[in-house]
Design a protein that fits this description.
about 550 residues, alpha+beta, Thrombin, subunit H, Pdz3 Domain, 8-stranded antiparallel beta sheet, 11 helices, globular
Length: about 550
């Protein structure tokens, strides 16, 4: 069975998008001879058109020289802003791999200084190395990269384009936007901050150039185009304490991106940042022509918080939803042309519940499946039209922060209403600064990623609509969950416009205490100590059972 992988790539590849914006390079590429004044002729006959089409049109040498000069100028302008990032992390030899860890280059090196008194002396450690990318943010020594490049790293080294290298530390990170900020102490003349472009003005078809460190080949340059806008990039954590999250408003490019690109930049023809290279979609962990980039407008909003506070509180309404399709609209007695975002669930204790939003309370058969309908339909956010659910999440990601007010227009029973709410912080975000590594290291570990059960997932799995708990998405190899025999999900399923996996174990209780969702399960697990045993009540293939898990320190 062919399996499609979303591969997080790591290395210093700058993606420079060549856009036709004012003040940038003007690429004039006339084809063939220059125009001259000639008498107007009659339109050619079909035969004449065929003859003209068979004659090749050749790009003149002066035009090639101009294009070549433009590429060279972009490279020389942006390269000083790009850095390579090298990391290493101590890994127990018994663990075959770490999911989402930056790509390993070379063979593991045994740790010769392993303490014989260490409680894990039977599991010697080695240093697993990786490489990533980043770019200079300001002249204070702040370097921006992807969170997954440096997450969990014991050792981080930043290398500049002139060969200068220095150690770096993480001063801020946000896993839900996959951004992190490093701090280096170097001479100011080494720091060439990247300039920012407005990613909301990016158009499909713009030329895109990547400069970076694929496969540790520093200073490499590739070119392509912006091939898509408004994509969603699903992130999943291998730790239970963080909910899977989707980055909205992502830019897609066909520029060659390979392992080693993560944390690099996408720039326009003026050398300005369009976004941060984050992931590729490929069955072989190499360039397949589909790469994903976090847009600069999100980067510009979040990075200052990471520098100041060390974390970022993601804005949160407290709903789940899906696009309102013509079929769903008709099922709700609306015109098929009506567009918007249909509210499926309203999360208790959130701004949405306090404001009085209503979720879907009945089902209807659409395309042969039972789907939930009847909830409020969001049609505007702060006077911006909402065509689909992505419009809502993208607006929050681009312009708003926790604590901001948001005015929402919505349809209920066919009538338009309006309310204003104050955004909360998404649960689990902005609560743990990266300056507390010892506390994080001591947390007990289960080793799964999961999502909250809801009626839609339950129906898809053939379960009762009120089935609650945490559906296991993935299990980390060598983790307590893996050793206990818990099972992850394996069947792709589209949930509210996003791809998730279903079919795995559902954790419904811990030592007899019921579990309603991921956050509650994380809180329960964190009350245990390494070595404690917990009995998990699970639902597997529709049958109830229990599994004993010996929890451990990560």
């Amino acid at each position: 069975m062919n399996k499609k992988l979303i591969t997080i790539s790591v290395s210093t590849i700058l993606i420079l998008a060549l856009t036709a914006c004012a003040g940038g390079f003007q690429l004039s590429l006339p084809i063939g001879k220059a125009e001259t004044e000639e008498p107007i002729q009659e339109s050619p006959t079909p035969n004449e058109m065929e003859e003209e089409e068979t004659e090749p049109q050749i790009l003149g040498a002066p035009d090639l020289d101009g294009l070549q000069a433009a590429y060279i100028d972009i490279y020389q302008k942006v390269l000083p802003s790009v850095v390579s990032i090298e990391i290493s992390t101590a890994v127990a030899q018994s663990m075959p791999s770490i999911p989402d860890f930056p790509f390993d280059f070379g063979f593991p090196e045994q740790d010769e200084n392993n303490d014989e008194e260490d409680e894990n002396e039977n599991e010697p450690e080695y240093q697993q190395s990786g490489a990533g990318s980043g770019f200079v943010w300001d002249r204070d020594g702040h370097i921006v990269t992807n969170n997954h490049v440096v997450d969990g790293a014991d050792y981080i080294r930043v290398r500049f384009s002139d060969g200068t290298s220095t150690l770096a530390e993480v001063i801020g990170s946000d896993s839900n936007s996959d951004l992190a900020v490093l701090k280096v102490d170097v001479a100011v003349d080494l720091l060439h901050p990247i300039q920012l472009a407005d990613s909301t003005r990016v158009k499909v078809g713009q030329i895109a150039i990547a400069i970076g460190n694929p496969f540790r080949q520093s200073g490499s340059m590739t070119a392509g185009i912006v091939s898509g806008l408004g994509r969603s990039l699903a992130l999943e954590s291998d730790l239970l304490s963080q909910v899977s999250y989707t980055i909205p408003d992502v830019i897609q490019t066909d520029t060659a991106i390979n392992p080693g690109n993560s944390g690099g930049v996408l720039v326009d023809i003026a050398g300005k940042l369009i976004g941060v290279t984050t992931a590729i979609e490929s069955p072989v962990r190499a360039n397949s022509g589909v790469g994903y980039v976090i847009p600069s407008i999100i980067v510009q909003k979040i990075v200052p918080f990471l520098i100041k506070d060390g974390n970022y509180r993601q804005p949160y309404i407290g709903i789940t939803g899906r696009d309102l399709t013509p079929e769903l609209a008709e099922a709700m007695g609306l015109d098929a042309s009506q567009r918007g975002a249909l509210v499926i669930d309203v999360i208790p204790g959130t701004p949405a519940e306090e404001a009085g939003f209503q979720g879907s309370d009945r089902t209807s058969r659409v395309d042969g499946q039972e789907v939930r309908v009847g909830g409020d339909i969001l049609v505007k956010v702060n006077d911006q039209a909402v065509d689909d659910f992505e419009d809502v999440t993208a607006y929050l990601a681009r312009y708003l922060n926790a604590g901001d007010k948001l005015t929402i227009s919505y349809l209920r029973d066919g009538k338009e209403n309006e309310l204003t709410l104050t955004l909360a912080a998404r649960p689990g975000t902005g609560t743990q600064a990266p300056s507390e590594p010892e506390e994080v290291a001591e947390r007990v570990w289960l080793g799964i990623s999961g999502i909250d059960m809801n009626a839609t997932i339950a129906q898809a799995m053939g379960l009762r609509i009120n089935t609650s708990g945490v559906l296991i998405q993935q299990i980390t190899s060598g983790s307590p969950a893996d050793e206990a025999g818990l099972r992850g999900s394996y069947k792709p399923f589209e949930l509210d416009g996003e791809q998730v996996l279903i079919g795995g174990d559902i954790i419904s209780a811990v030592d007899g205490q019921e579990v309603d969702g991921v956050d509650e399960l994380a809180q329960m697990i964190n009350t245990y100590q390494p070595g404690d045993e917990a009995t998990l009540s699970i639902l597997r293939d529709g049958k109830k059972g229990t599994v004993k898990v010996t929890l451990a320190k990560r």
